[in-house]
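Tutorial, part two.
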Amino acid sequence: MEKIRDTGDAVIHKGDPRLPTSDMDAWWNGLLGSVQPATARPHLYGSDAGLCPRKNVFYSQNVWYPFFMQPSTRTYMAIGVALENLLGEALKEHGRLLAANPYLVEMPEVKIRGKIDFIILDHQDEVALVEVKSCGDLPLSPNPQHLAQIEMYCAVSGVHKAYLTYISRKVQDQAHWGPDIAIRTFPIDCSEAALTHRLFIAVFSQLCIEAASLPNIPASFRKTLECRYCPFLDFCWSKEPRAGGGGRETPPVKEFSIGEELVLSDKALVIAKKLWGESGFRRELTLRGV
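Running the prediction step on this input gives:
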């Protein structure tokens, strides 16, 4: 073991991270890992509803593909909850917190379940939504799924101002040491076009689920970005499997023809525009509960 002397008199012992894992270490990792059985979702989730209709159909029909919760994933989630709570406590201390984790209001046309991280009075004294994500290094731009999630929350809640805040598990930006934490916030596009698009994806997903059929992969999607962390990636990109993952056959779900998909797409757009027009009513319902 290497000894490193600091600027004072204390001696710091720096351990070798390459030491073999003990039986106890393996035991802890075994306790933290778990397998989640394949379970079909009964409704859309806000975290996914506004991104990919194909993924939403897979989730609604999934009785074949279990998910393994890695110990590292579970740990990241626990850290994320702690950091979110930290920000929530600060908002409450300063009288800026209107609500923490309120459920989305219901829409009769499409059921979307989800909880908003925070409804706040922002730095301009305006009502806004905040979605908090933990990360390693701070991103230069929002993750597509995170962006779809917060825009979906805006579209459903009727609150058309929002922020996506990333807070690093590294606490400080190592390039700029100081008292501040490593945190980066992106203002969200809450225009009619952006939010109607999210409503359209959710409604189109619901129509596809009711038809028990898969739409095509969205033309703008890339395997390495929009699809990167999707659990169904290998089903959609079977000819280009991830390294070491191996391709999988598409599950037994009927696929739409282009013509069938266009008919549902037109219907979904009409409903999405109607839902956008009712945003003010849903905003009132959302804020009535804070």
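The mean pLDDT is 88. In part three we will examine how such features are distributed along the chain.
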